Amino acid sequence: MAPRTNGIGVQVENTRICVVMVGLPARGKSFIAQKAQRYLAWLSIPAATFNVGNYRRTDAPQPPADFFDTNNQEGERKRRAAAEAAVADMLRWFKKGGVVGILDATNSTKERRKWVLDIMTQNNIEVIFVESKCDDENMIMMNIRDVKTTSPDYQGQDPETAALDFRNRIRNYEKVYKSLNEDGDEEDLTFLKIMNVGKQVIINRIRDYLQSRIVYYLMNLHIRPRSVWLSRHGESMLNLEGRIGGDAELSHRGEEYARKLPELVLESVGSDRPLTVWTSTLKRTIATARHLPKHYNQLQWKALDELDAGVCDGMTYQEIADLHPDDFQARDEDKYNYRYRGGESYRDVVIRLEPIIMELERSEDILIISHQAVIRCIYAYFMQKTQEESPWVPVPLHTLIKLTPRAYGTEVQTYKANIQAVSTWRGKGSTAKHEDPSPEKSLFQTH
Amino acid sequence: MAPRTNGIGVQVENTRICVVMVGLPARGKSFIAQKAQRYLAWLSIPAATFNVGNYRRTDAPQPPADFFDTNNQEGERKRRAAAEAAVADMLRWFKKGGVVGILDATNSTKERRKWVLDIMTQNNIEVIFVESKCDDENMIMMNIRDVKTTSPDYQGQDPETAALDFRNRIRNYEKVYKSLNEDGDEEDLTFLKIMNVGKQVIINRIRDYLQSRIVYYLMNLHIRPRSVWLSRHGESMLNLEGRIGGDAELSHRGEEYARKLPELVLESVGSDRPLTVWTSTLKRTIATARHLPKHYNQLQWKALDELDAGVCDGMTYQEIADLHPDDFQARDEDKYNYRYRGGESYRDVVIRLEPIIMELERSEDILIISHQAVIRCIYAYFMQKTQEESPWVPVPLHTLIKLTPRAYGTEVQTYKANIQAVSTWRGKGSTAKHEDPSPEKSLFQTH
């Protein structure tokens, strides 16, 4: 069968890419690597990060700064061995079906980059170098603070000593560091150079679609602090009847939630932060956003409309089980991939949400008022939920969720409106109209 | 009402952008400007190009090379006046609702760029500079050849004399030309610098979503010669009955077309050119591609599926007129914007085709086997059809269409399989099962 695509990851079948990070320590390389991996995995593109530091630590758990001096032969040998082990693991992973492998290390010399390029080229793997270059002292300081508190290299050490040592380590790297194509002799490489977190970006010899997607994603990242708020619409008339899809009005209690929402938002966002509100194009999300402060910009996205249930639109689960028993079962068996006849699968929804994610990455504070399946998919992006988990995540009605991206993960807070609503969560195999999710599946934990 | 978006042109309501082209003559600036305008217009973003040369020609129709020498005061004055007239017109156009205005001129000095930036900033219009820099002699020669044969500046002149004069004109520009941020003092500008048609790209201080869309589109352009072939699936069982949508098998005559297609393709493409085939995920396009040579790569896109007719899926036009008379009429009145209940509008289809267009721009030769509405939308992109025209373009069954992008427009050729098929074209107000388009609407002309 011909490979399928929905617009992302075209011809992934034939493409394997090694993303080689480049840059001095404390330039956000691991942050970029982790974001890229999460984005690709969310799009069903097998991606993995190979952090050379982790390999080095098995041999040298907490080395002093001069371990990273190129004149330190013992240090050089161990660091070289760590890089070789990481690359060997990555090649094994590619053989097992990996598509985008990310080599997270400084790769700060031309020799090291040529070494990686040669190995990958011999294995028919494309190489794209991604350099994070930063001369903004504030940004570097922020990263150093982060490293000294989170890196296993400094665990248990005095923070001030750690910071000093880390600065010395950076100095040792600076001695040999060459920025990509600094001497003009790396112009044949495929690379992306990100200066000061996106202020300027240089893109060189990008060759295919998947490379261009990765580059476009990375050039849209920023690290200014912000949050994303998610809410489902208020309870709808069809929710009351346990029917899916449709374009119903809010129930009484749904209206109550819409009136209460400004208060919840104010409590969570604060009164002086500007907020942009995105809704779907369906009545129930627009009505839910109706009472929010007038100075918030509002925008309707068709991409935020609920998963299209096709021929099952407007039915109860019982009716689906009665009228389309095979479909009902097929969906339970592989809910992520099951596409309603004439409608959509969770996989389809993820693909149409891709521009939303891209725009979220570019934006500051955003409140999204949308639907159960759509919010599950957005939640899965931020929380790295697998395809098996994401279609079953409970997203209760009348609840505001706040997601705050941090250096290595996303923080969750929830705000309950304390307005009763039916549950629209459904367990595997169940045809119940309203069923409560088992408590261990609840969202109400900080991840 | 909150502004709506489908993922492109977010917050267009609040954004106005002046794209200022920068570069020596014969660097493809007008090509880039024209592509960007066509792309944006296709996405319903009001865009227009203001070519300073056209303004200058009213005053100085066929000036010699030394008109462009900065020491020529008369020339300087007239060129300045032309720029002022173009900018004044652009500002008037912005006041009437323009969103992206493109200033097509060399803008090759820092002073000129600062002048444009100041005027636009005073009018709350964002400025993005787009420079095409090229030192590939072959590419420049190609452009010079192009200019001397197509530019009104040299109409009726001996081609060799024209080429010589044009080279001297370029030399006069080179004397004062400064590449963007060449001296490091334009680093606060928002700009995109394209070197040698995309080999390297520098992106500086891109600020919002629309800017980033324009940049992403422009960085994906190439100028290698290629064609795009379009075909509808062979006649389907539902076509025979005059029913829309569905997922039917091919009719006997449709099968015949599928068997004939390889021959048509071979005739048009040639036997030694590699071709990639894209189909939708529906049976009738996959079956139509079945007999194509095995060495062609094939890819299925959900984005190429037929316009979703929602509640009207599988109906005849007569049934739609009987069961949903209001919808039937509303669709005829504004076919581009009418969205079937639970389904899609042409506008929706254009938005989901955007990644297809992006990938087409990146690609070499592609054959697309898809559906009537989808092919109308792709055709509209290449042929600059308006929203009023595109939903009515006749795209007959059993016909292969070849589109070849040229410097200023797209060439069309059609190949008929000479296998009978019903017509699925429908005139405004008609509920006929099968109706032939009026001859003047036919595709069979080279545009």
UniProtKB/TrEMBL annotation, chains A, B:
CDD domains to which the protein is assigned, alphabetical: HP_PGM_like (cd07067)
Enzyme category, top tier: hydrolase
EC number: 3.1.3.46
UniProt entry keywords in alphabetical sequence: ATP-binding, Hydrolase, Nucleotide-binding
Molecular function terms from GO: 6-phosphofructo-2-kinase activity; ATP binding; fructose-2,6-bisphosphate 2-phosphatase activity
Protein family: In the C-terminal section; belongs to the phosphoglycerate mutase family.
Protein name: fructose-2,6-bisphosphate 2-phosphatase
Native organism taxonomy: Eukaryota, Fungi, Dikarya, Ascomycota, Pezizomycotina
